[in-house]
Specification:
Shape: globular
Helix content: 40-55%
Structural class: alpha/beta
Strand content: 15-25%
Distance between the termini: 35 Å
CATH topology: Rossmann fold
Length: 141
């Protein structure tokens, strides 16, 4: 339904209770990157697929962040001045008392246009490896 996020992957209750979990808030291609990245961290990653950005399911987002205390907002758009960066700010403001680490926003590198050469396109966009590295760093914090 319009404005309702979907839980694309759940974290295990044990990992949540142990404080060894995080949530990834994403949409579009980010769901694919998040699912593939989370395979290295079984039971530690919850993935929330926003489905629609306007209206945004803020209740589901904030509930997920409060449950885990750590959050990544993932997008394929350029990160600067993006919806994801604004959402990360709203999460930081609203869930500040529940956060164990700063909210991390991941997106494309700030290039003037989409790269048309495959090598540059791969370097510009987030990847499974990039997201895995960020998950690892956040879980260790």
């Amino acid at each position: 339904p319009l404005g309702k996020a979907t839980l694309a992957q759940q974290a295990s209750t044990k990992e949540i209770n142990d404080g060894n979990s995080l949530c990834i808030i994403t949409y579009g291609m980010g769901v694919y990157w998040a699912k593939n990245s989370s395979k290295k961290f079984p039971g530690s990653v919850e993935i929330l697929d926003l489905r629609t950005l306007n209206p945004c399911d803020d209740e589901a987002v904030f509930e997920s962040v409060r449950r885990h205390g750590k959050c990544i907002v993932l997008t394929e758009e350029q990160i600067y001045n993006s919806f994801a960066q604004a959402l990360a700010g709203r999460i930081s403001y609203t869930c500040f008392r529940h956060l164990d680490a700063p909210v991390k926003a991941i997106g494309s590198k700030p290039l003037p246009a989409v790269a048309l050469i495959m090598i540059l396109e791969k370097a510009m966009l987030p990847s499974v490896e990039m997201v895995s590295d960020e998950i690892s760093a956040l879980l260790k914090s």
